[in-house]
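BACKBONE STRUCTURE TOKENS:
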Amino acid sequence: MATRKFCFVCGKSTDKLIEGYCEECRGEKENLIEMPKKFELTVCSRCNRVKFNNRWHDSSVEDVLNKKIKTKGRITKFEIERDGKFYYAIVKGYPEGSTKLREEKERIPVHINKIVCSQCIRKWGGYYEAIVQIRGKYTRPMLDLVEEIVERSKGKDEKAFISKISRVKGGFDYYLGSKKIAMKIASEMKKEYDAEIKKSYELVTQKEGKDVYRNIYSVRI
């Protein structure tokens, strides 16, 4: 005959103890959520990107917290919820060593620092490194390709933005934050639409004794 054991918390008689606890008391002792005392996050006040691991990411605060908060036990539901200016972790599951389903909702101790990211400083300051000039028998899909390439580059190039679009006689001028993206646009226009590409340069300034140029791509379709 198995020896009966007693939970040292509630005194319940059972033939199975987990570290001195009965299943119910062990479940009450174990939390499903594990998080630090405080999260420090930096968020851009213009574009709402979040900075972590020393890089800006196109992620929401909820996405970042979802990755940083750890759970324990067998989890059946986990989500981050925002209520006003506060964030909460909602988790449902079975604590370690327990078959009793439990749900927890905890306020996340997060402090958000609002600043303007380097990309927005450049973008809203009118910064650009290159101009792509679209001329000729262009179509709407051809123009859309420019913005599609910029969107695809976000997260890879900190200067992936269009500073300005100007309607000019015969077409459009796109002012690009990145020379690399401007070159990519010209390359894809040539490949997709057999566009004629001409490249020129515009002297902007001198830096440490060296001339700094903007690249200008004339794309004729």
Remarks:
- The longest helix spans residues 179-193.
